[in-house]
Amino acid sequence: MLAETAGAASSLAARVKILAGPGGHSLRPMMWMFLAILVTFLITRIVTRLIRSGSGTGAGLGNVRIAGNHVHHQVFGILVIIGTGIILVSVAPRGVALDAAAAAFGVGVGLTVDEFALWLHLEDVYWTAQGRKSVDAIFCVLVVTGTLIGGADFVAGRAGTAAWWSSVAAIAVNLLLCVTCLLKGKVVTGVTGIVISVVALAGAIRLAKPGSWWAAHRYATRPRRASRAARRYDQRYQDRWNRLRDLIAGAPSRGGKPG
Questions:
Q1: Is residue 228 part of a domain?
Q2: How many CA atoms lie within 13 A of 157 on its CB side?
Q3: How many domains in the chain?
Q4: Which domain holds residue 84?
Q5: Beta pairing class for 25-26 and 19-20
Q6: Which pLDDT tens digit goes with each residue over 74-94?
Q7: Which of 114, 144, 249, 250 is the most exposed place for a label (fewest CB within 10 A)?
Q8: How far apart are CA 46 and CA 116, in angstroms?
Q9: How far apart are alpha carbons 138 and 115 in whole angstroms?
Q10: Cβ(195)–Cβ(152) under 8 Å?
Q11: Across-strand partners of 25?
Q12: How would you classify residue 90: left for phi > 0, otherwise alpha for psi between -120 and 50, otherwise beta?
């Protein structure tokens, strides 16, 4: 299935040329990687939801087991990433071959990041509340890769020029804002802010989430601000975001146990 997906992406890349960025430069590899990540994630979630509900049995869908062990799809993703990485380093493909490698790499990333929560907790939490972290992770990956499709010149001008120093200063300020977001408990905002500066700025200015490092150290002597943060990020806030995550990836099992 993975080989067919990569092959289809390669065929499509050979027929379609997408121009993006200043001067209309061709950035097909990043485009195909982004599309492969997105499509792989969506297909994976559809398949896992069918397996979970039992409706996929008639179509031959089921968990992969080897010697009695449930082999998670992140294992196949890691193998694809390793294989593609070896090809990219040893062969250094160009043209359509590079597009195909980028698409295959995206397939591996999609399969692997879809189980990000398993890396984090080192246990099968795919259908638990903790498993929602995988949705946040894939969102961050899609934002970063999607932004890079159009080309991103993080540093402008030649080294040592005024333009170069200005861009370096802008990067340093933006990274500081991103770190502030992380300290405020806004992981998705902090990661997204790396490539979309206005997001980092908004996240750094707004209140910290209760329980975050920032709230614990800066709001301890500011009860009014702590109260505002608690109201801002109350259960209704969590429920709204959880409904969106569950719409995309499926709701956790009742009782918080893996499905």
A1: no
A2: 10
A3: 1
A4: 1-152
A5: antiparallel
A6: 999 999 999 999 999 999 898
A7: 144
A8: 17
A9: 9
A10: yes
A11: 20
A12: alpha
Q: Confidence class of residue 27 from pLDDT cuts 50, 70 and 90?
A: low
Whether the model pTM is above 0.85: no
Is 201 inside a domain boundary?
no
Cα 152 to Cα 234: distance, rounded to the nearest angstrom:
37
The answer to whether position 238 is within a domain reads no
Place of tokens 């099968």: 124
181 in a domain, yes or no?
A: no
